[in-house]
Write a structure and sequence with these properties.
alpha+beta, Rossmann fold, four-stranded antiparallel β-sheet, 15 helices, ATP hydrolysis activity, P-loop_NTPase
């Protein structure tokens, strides 16, 4: 396996200088300060002594820990420890950064701050991030892979996945006290026959509008706007399918064998994801998202390593599996 074009069997020093890791559980030293943590890991990654101090402070400032620069790790809150772990992963200009649920344990404000840090840091790097927050995946992911039962079910851009698994658009209407819901439903179905009534909660009535009927939306919206007082409508609006809905639907339906220009769903063979199927059409997506070939190579290699781990766990008895296990052992030995 290669990380940033460094062979893990032959150039482990190059791998260390290029790789940043934020594990799911914080691995920190209680008796070291924030500054000492950042300086220590910057040194491990080969940063020059002359730049370590400035870089440590800049990273602490980026993640919002400049006020805790001299504080011991044991005195930090859970969210502050996560920030420090993210800073450790990014310091030293790591070109490949793996982040395992980086914003877990943070309050909403801190989460958004970290999102801003990662969006700023993504330029010139390959970021591989796992998360349970679907809005986080939607915001930060150029390509999103969804796993269920330990298997990658699909992979593609946010727009591709929403189009593939989304049911359509949600029309939410805020009604007045004199609104006749049956009449309102009849009006909507007259314009779009495939529209479905979803729910009514307090003053909000929700309908599902299929994506295939989007050409009829303007006429429907104009009609609702012109007849607001007659139908008892205070206001209305629409929202597209969210990544959370996509995630729930993927988990319910299992894997599919469809594909598209913007992404793929991944069939399996003996329980192992076929890398060539899961990550085809990279050229199209990279061109659209302005991802360089070198970054693309890094991403494929990182996911390639993941597939090797799957192969090891399932004890595939073939030459490729043996070679994969050798690579993993060499990587572990290097550390």
């Amino acid at each position: 396996a290669y990380i940033n074009n460094f062979d893990i069997r032959e150039n482990i020093a190059g791998v260390r200088s290029s790789l940043g890791l934020c594990p799911q559980h914080d691995i920190l030293f209680d008796t070291l300060t924030v500054e000492e943590h950042l300086r220590f890991f910057a040194k491990l990654k080969g940063c020059p002594n002359s730049t370590i101090q400035n870089e440590a402070f800049e990273v602490a400032k980026e993640v919002g820990l400049e006020g805790k620069f001299k504080a011991f790790a044991q005195s930090l809150s859970g969210g502050q420890k996560r920030k420090l772990s993210v800073g450790i992963a990014l310091i030293g200009g790591s070109k490949v950064v793996i982040l395992d649920e980086p914003s877990s344990g943070m309050d909403p404000g801190a989460r958004r701050q970290i999102w801003g840090v990662l969006q700023k840091a993504r330029e010139g790097r390959t970021l591989v991030l796992s998360t349970h927050y679907m809005d986080e995946a939607d915001l930060l992911g150029d390509r999103i892979a969804i796993m269920a039962e330990g298997v990658v079910k699909c992979c593609g851009s946010s727009m591709f996945l929403k189009k593939l698994y989304g049911a359509g658009y949600h029309l939410v209407i805020v009604k007045s006290s004199d609104c006749d819901v049956d009449k309102l439903t009849h009006t909507i179905k007259s314009a779009i026959q495939a529209a479905e009534f979803e729910s009514i909660i307090n003053t909000e009535v929700s309908y599902l509008l299929p994506d295939s009927e989007s050409s009829k939306f303007p006429d429907l919206f104009r009609d609702l706007e012109n007849r607001k007082s007659q139908l008892g409508i205070i206001s209305f609006g629409t929202s597209a399918t969210t990544m959370e809905e996509v995630f729930l639907k993927v988990g319910d339906t299992g894997h599919h064998d469809d594909d598209d220009d913007n992404g793929t769903v991944a069939p399996t063979h003996n329980g192992v994801i076929k890398r060539e199927n899961c990550f085809t059409n990279f050229a199209y997506e990279n061109e659209k998202n302005h991802i360089s070939d070198s970054e693309n190579g890094n991403l494929q290699r990182v996911f390639g390593s993941t597939n090797k781990i799957y192969a090891e766990k399932r004890n595939l008895e073939n030459e490729e599996s043996e070679k994969q296990i050798e690579d993993i052992m060499a990587f572990n030995k290097g550390f």
